[in-house]
Amino acid sequence: MKLYGIIGNPVEHSLSPPMHAAAYEATGVDATYSKYRVEEGDVADAVRGASALGIDGLNVTVPHKQAVAALDDVVLDGTAERVGAVNTLDFGESDEVRGYNTDASGALRALERETTVEGKRVALVGAGGAARAVAFALAEEGATVAIANRTESKAEALADEVNEVGAAGGYGLDVLEKVVPDADIVVNATTVGMEEDVSPVPADTLREHHVVFDAVYTPLETRLLRDAAEAGATTVDGAWMLVYQGAEAFEIWTGQDAPVEEMNEALRAEL
Ligand code: NAP
Predict the structure, then answer these.
(1) Domain holding 160: CATH number?
(2) Closest residue (by CA) to atom 43 of ligand 1?
(3) Which of 1, 37, 48, 129 has the smallest C-beta neighbourhood within 10 Å, fewest atoms?
C-alpha cells in the first residue's frame, strides 16, 4: 500500500484527504492519505522522518511551503524553484526527495477550463503565496500580468522576479480601475472575500468578455464571482484550483491520469 499525506499547521481543516481518497477509489490505487500537524521548527525533521518511514508522497500547506523549498535535501523542479514554494513532495523509489509546486499548474489548469492563457492580459490582485504561484504560471505560459497589491512594494518585487520568465508589472490596488476593463483575465489571489462579503475588484470594472477566477474557495461563490456573473463574465471558482493541484500531485505520485471529475465531486461535497 502507498502512503501519502499532508503536512501543515493547522491541517485539521484540510480537504485533501477526501479528494485523494476519491481518486484512489476511482482508479483502484491502493493507498491511504493522512494529515500530519507539523510545528514550524520541525519541518526539516518531518520531511527526513517521512522519507525514513517510507512515506511515498506529501502535500505541504500553510505555513510550510517556503520552508520546504529551502531544505537542502529537497530537489526542486523549475516552477517550485522560481515560486520559492513547494506544495508536493515525491519521495519516489530513489533517495532523492523531489519538490514541486502544483498550485501553479493547478491555477493554470483551472483557468484553461474556460480560456487559453498565451498572449492574454491578466489583472492579478495579490502578491502573497497564491499570487506568486498564479503570476509565475501565467507569465511562463505567455500572458502579460499586471499585479496589483495592497502593499505596492510587494507587487513590484514580485513583478521584478516574474519579469525574468515573462512579462509583468507591479502596482497598488488603485491601478485596477484602469487595467481591469482592458484585461482578458481577472484573478483574485488575496484573502479578500473569505471573512466578509466584499470584493477586491471594483464591480463597475467587470465586463462580459472577462474570465474571472477567484482563488478563494470558502465561500465558493464570492462577491467577486457574483459581480462577475452579473456583468455577464465567465467565472472559475477556487475549488477548481484545489482540484487540479491535487490532481497534479496524484499524477506525479502514481504516474496515472487523475480522475478529475471524481476528485471535484468529493471536494464539492465537503465544501
Ligand atoms: P497570503 O500569502 O497571506 O497573501 C495574502 C494576500 O492578500 C496579500 O496579497 C495581501 O496583501 C492580501 N490582503 C489581505 N488582506 C487584504 C485586504 N484587506 N485588502 C487587500 N488585500 C489584502 O495568502 P495566500 O496563501 O496567498 O492565500 C490567498 C488566498 O488564496 C486565500 O483565500 C487562500 O485560501 C487562497 N488559496 C487558494 C488555493 C486553491 O487551491 N484554490 C491555493 C492557495 C491559496 P498585503 O501584501 O498588502 O498584505
Answers:
(1) 3.40.50.720
(2) 130
(3) 1
What does pTM read for this prediction?
0.96
Ligand 1, residues 11, 191, 243: which to mutate, most atoms within 8 A of Cβ? 191
Whether residue 191 sits in one domain with residue 83: no
How far apart are the CA of 136 and the centre of ligand 1, in A? 16
Nearest to 40 by CA among 58, 25, 62: 62
| Predicted confidence (pLDDT) at residue 93 exceeds the cutoff of 90 | no
| Residues of the domain holding 244 | 2-101+240-270
Question: What is the C-alpha separation between 17 and 249, in angstroms, rounded?
Answer: 13
Question: Ligand 1 pocket test: which of 109, 171, 190 has the largest number of ligand atoms within 8 Å of its C-beta?
Answer: 190
> Are both 73 and 143 inside the same structural domain?
no
Active site residue 120: no
Indicate the average pLDDT of the chain: 97
Among residues 65, 120, 154, 178, the one annotated as catalytic is: 65
In the chain, the number of structural domains is: 2
Nearest CA to ligand 1 atom 17: 192
Spatial CA neighbour of 8 closest among 92, 107, 129:
129
Are 137 and 248 in a shared domain?
no
Q: What is the pLDDT of residues 58-78, one digit of tens each?
A: 999 999 999 999 999 999 999
What is d(CA 261, CA 258) in angstroms, rounded to the nearest whole number?
9
Closest residue CA from atom 1 of ligand 1: 128
